[in-house]
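tool_call: predict_structure(chain=1)
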Amino acid sequence: MKKSTIIILLLLTTQMTWAGGGWPIPKGKGYFKLSEYFIRSNGYFAPSGDVIDIATAGIYITSLYGEYGITDRFGVIAYVPFFSRATLNEQVDRNGNVLAQGDAVNSFGDTDISFKYGLITNKPIVVSATLTFGLPLGNDQGGETGVLQTGDGEFNTMIALEASRGINGGKGWINTLVGYNNRINNFSDEFRWGLEIGHKFGKKWSGGIKFYSVNSLNNGSDFETPSNGIFSNNIEYLSFTPEVNYFIKENLGISASIGGALSAKRVLASPGYSLGVFMTL
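tool_result:
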């Protein structure tokens, strides 16, 4: 696989789904989304950043995401991958002889619970702070081989600031994010930043693009994690994710997104897709 090939990547580690950006969701209001994510890959971003060949691996995740306003400034957020499946294809030679058996694992996935507070509201630029707890509810040593993962096996805490501004009379928006992710179990901490630009197109459509970067501080161990997943230590990437939304009704719609990696380390490298249905209160 040539490195010059455009590599598609949808990133799941401590998901940052910016439904509200710097705007805290109002009291009694909510945003909820049921999503399906899937990826199959025979390529992997090595620690050097080069793409190497691996046995074809697959990850399939069905999740619920929700935001709900407790007050006009304070809300709760949850990302719950209630069904995760990781697979490893059987390997055969040119003569059809089996070199390695296939493998699979099904389980609950790593879950994020967040609390968002509006620091600056009702201004042209709004700012919120978010505290996220990453719960290791997935399987980090699954299957007969013990190398399949639906989680990374570590508890993490992330603090993030988001600032947002409406543009074009409220039809568009710009969101920015900076965050620090503290990880335990000898995993390295991370500095994260993000940028989102979006716009509404009539009453039925909206879309945008998100840039998201994870940068390892390399202050943990250098232990190697399986090269057939996305739940690795010392991962680094700069991704872009176009997303489009279609509103069936004012409070009900469908969404689709796909992400591209400008650079990456220690994650799968192949097309990944996300489809979802969302509703608002």
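agent: Residues 30-280 form a domain with the Porin fold (CATH 2.40.160.40). Proceeding to next step.
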